[in-house]
Design brief:
Alpha-Beta Plaits; five-stranded mixed sheet; single chain; 13 helices; 2 domains; alpha+beta
Length: about 325
């Protein structure tokens, strides 16, 4: 948004100066008003970057400015509509851009009918619609690729669950008041499984673990692959006792269904505790489970056991 506004200001300002020097005061004045409006839009965007209101305000202003120029001097200004409709696809979602560009096409229809050559309105509309179509296709493909890249960046390709990057994007400074518990799980003797049965079998087990845990957890819970054979569960609005109960259920199901064992460490987030400390306490509880014979659940010490009433279905 900021780049589009800056480019428009840089492009139009010299035109306003040239028209003023040529004595075209009305056109120069219109250009000056548009530049001033873009400066205000730029200032607003600096304060509200990436917000829907900022994108809509920019697209609306560009569209209104383009329509005004067409009605002001059709033969000279009509070409400014081409960058306007393209900019709308950059600023808005595909559907929003299509709606606002269709509105622009309808509003300018009376002005465009004023072309001296009867074929010019048809030529103009065909050209503008083609530009909209090409820009829309580019916008759609770009958004599709962005979603694919985001999927690759935030999800583990083997299990399909969230990875560390996605976890750390959730565990941000804006969630300091978050309440809930964390379960950190590590499969016991997984290296031996890989060595004896092969990595392909190990990958299959990881996929089975992911499916089993996803099945047993609630919709409000969040499951991540934290490391090679480590999994992390964020239990929203859940106290330590309930977290341990859920971990014990998962431990039994993994042992019974897959004939392998796993160790669990549970920790409830303290008020105003940072995320690093919370994960470190869950990790310490996990190591305690490992040191006490594996295949068990161990809670991290806490003085703030606030239970949640929610439970597994």
């Amino acid at each position: 948004m900021l780049l589009l506004s800056a480019c428009a200001i840089i492009a139009i300002t010299p035109l306003a100066m040239m028209r003023a020097l040529a004595g075209q005061w009305l056109l120069a004045g219109l250009d000056a008003v548009i530049v001033l409006g873009m400066l205000l839009v730029l200032r607003y965007n600096l304060r509200h970057q990436h917000s829907l209101a900022a994108r809509l305000s920019s697209a609306s202003f560009y569209s209104i400015a383009g329509i005004t120029m067409v009605y002001f001097k059709l033969d000279v200004m009509v070409y400014w509509l081409f960058p306007v409709v393209i900019a709308n696809f950059f600023l808005l979602s595909l559907r929003q851009a299509i709606v606002i560009n269709c509105a622009v096409l309808l509003v300018i229809a009376p002005a465009v009918s004023g072309f001296t050559n009867p074929s010019e309105p048809i030529d103009f509309y065909v050209a503008l619609i083609l530009v909209c179509a090409f820009a829309g296709i580019f916008s759609w493909k770009t958004e599709d690729q962005r979603q694919q890249l985001e999927q690759l960046a935030h999800h583990d390709p083997l299990t399909g669950m969230g990875n560390r990057r996605k976890l750390f994007s959730k565990l941000g400074p804006n969630n300091a008041k978050y309440t809930g518990s964390m379960v950190l799980m590590d499969l016991d003797h997984f290296k031996a499984i890989n060595d004896e049965l092969g990595h392909e079998r190990g990958d299959t087990i990881l996929q089975q673990i992911s499916a089993l845990m996803t099945n047993k957890l609630r919709q409000s819970d969040e499951l991540y692959r934290y490391g090679g054979e480590e999994f992390l569960v964020v239990l929203n609005n859940t106290g330590l006792s309930n977290a341990c109960r859920i971990a014990e259920l998962l431990r039994r199901e993994i042992n019974e269904q897959l004939s392998i064992t796993a160790s669990f460490g549970c920790a409830q987030k303290h008020p105003d505790e940072d995320w690093d400390s919370w994960i470190a306490r869950a990790d310490k509880a996990l190591y305690q489970a490992k040191n006490e014979g594996r295949n068990c659940v161990r809670p991290a010490p806490t003085n703030t056991d606030c239970e949640s009433a929610d439970a597994l279905p």
